[in-house]
Write a structure and sequence with these properties.
By secondary structure, the protein is an alpha/beta fold. Among the domains are: about 10-75 and about 110-150 and about 235-295, FAD/NAD(P)-binding domain (3-Layer(bba) Sandwich), CATH 3.50.50; about 295-355, no CATH class. Helix content is about 35%, strand content about 25%. The protein is built from 9 helices and 16 strands. Strands 6-5-11-12-13-10-14 form a 7-stranded mixed β-sheet, with helices on both faces. Strands 8-2-1-9-16-15 form a 6-stranded mixed β-sheet, covered by helices on one side. Strands 3-7-4 form a 3-stranded antiparallel β-sheet, with no helix packed on it. The termini are far apart.
């Protein structure tokens, strides 16, 4: 692909993928112009906490951001080394790790959020961000990072002020989060509680109430000024994410963790790879297939197995997290094996039928 470097690279979407691409381009002397249909960044988010996963590689995600990609940590990025996990028929199990399992970040348009931090970095480098605007035509190269196109899973939850101590709790239970999980995260007087649902979307109110009752019965909840929020995620695999001079990144390219929706790392890395493919005039498809495809495929197999074994599988996972180092356990299950490569065609076939669910 021969992009015209004299023309600004147009980017649709001011999410983590699009802004990362803009930042990397600007740091390499390329002009970038971002078009965002909303009035500010983080329009799909509501100040809720999310996890930036840190288990799928040996390199710490903060080192990857700062040293490899060139992203400053000018946003909340709190390391979480453990917490507890619950599964049907089992009491809470404590999990601990030698390194952060994930970094807690806030999403939305407010100060301290990942979205606001990336926006500030892009603007400081001279990136032009045009809000309330849709990209219709671009002369040079184009990057599309406009987010999910459908809902393969949904999240329903609340953010709130609290006097509770910092904590992280995960629940696997189909009566609370069918084929998904629920979580409770607290950091410095602020919390997020949500159920992530992969089936039976129409009964989301019931699952939210079940989650709320579960945490009321099992945690000393202190909730003030709660605000309800919702969200969705999208996963798919394509042979190519390049169409003529257009590159797709983030969930626009289907880059999402199909198992549990930890997609921020995929989004940021894909934005970086898209920018580097333009800077070095290299093949973007080759880059993402090398860096992301193995984990994307494995997450699809993990999703298939997670749904197939139900509560028995949830208890196996809970025990696995608590028995040793959860990062080692997760890393193993997020990397390809001979067995998972055998199952991949079945998982792909099953996934195609799932996305037609009219719910």
């Amino acid at each position: 692909m021969n992009f015209k470097q004299e023309s600004p690279i147009s980017i649709a979407g001011a999410g983590p993928a699009g802004l990362t691409a803009a930042i990397v381009l600007a740091k390499h002397g390329c002009k970038a112009r971002v078009y965002e249909i909303s009035p500010d960044v983080g329009h799909r988010m509501n100040g809720d906490f999310q996890g930036l996963e840190n288990w799928s590689s040996d390199k710490d995600i903060t080192s990857l951001l700062k040293n490899d990609i060139g992203i400053d940590i000018n946003f909340l990025c709190a390391p979480y080394y453990g917490g507890d996990i619950c599964a049907p028929g089992m009491g809470p199990l404590e999990i601990k790790s030698k390194k952060p399992i994930f970094y807690l970040v806030k999403r939305g348009a407010m100060g301290g959020s990942l979205d606001k931090g990336l926006k500030e970095q892009a603007l400081s480098l001279g990136v032009e961000i045009i809000f309330n605007s849709r990209l219709n035509f671009a002369e040079g190269g184009t990057i599309i990072g406009t987010g999910p196109k459908r809902a393969d899973f949904i999240a329903v939850g609340i953010t709130f002020d609290t006097g509770m101590k910092d904590l992280a709790t995960v629940v696997f239970n189909d009566e609370i989060a069918p084929k998904g999980y629920a979580y409770l995260l607290v950091n410095k007087g602020y919390g997020t509680m949500a159920t992530v649902i992969y089936k039976d979307y129409k009964n989301e109110k019931k699952y939210f109430e079940n989650m709320l009752n579960f945490f009321k019965n099992n945690k000393n909840l202190d909730i003030k000024n709660d605000k309800k929020f919702g969200g969705c995620g999208n996963f798919f695999l394509k042979d190519t994410n390049v169409e003529q001079k257009t590159i797709y990144v983030g969930e626009s390219a289907g880059f999402q963790d199909c198992l549990w929706g930890f997609g921020m790392k995929y989004a940021i890395v894909s934005g970086y790879l898209a920018a580097m493919s333009i800077i070095k005039n290299s093949d973007y498809d080759l880059l993402w297939k090398k860096e992301l495809k193995p984990m994307l495929e494995t997450s699809l197999v993990n999703r298939y197995l997670f749904e197939k074994f139900g509560h028995t599988g949830y208890r196996y996972l809970a025990k696995g997290f608590a028995k040793g180092d959860p990062c080692d356990f997760l890393k193993y299950h997020y990397n390809q094996t001979f067995f998972k490569n055998l199952i991949l065609p079945i998982a792909k076939s099953r996934y195609k039928s799932q996305i037609k669910d009219k719910n």
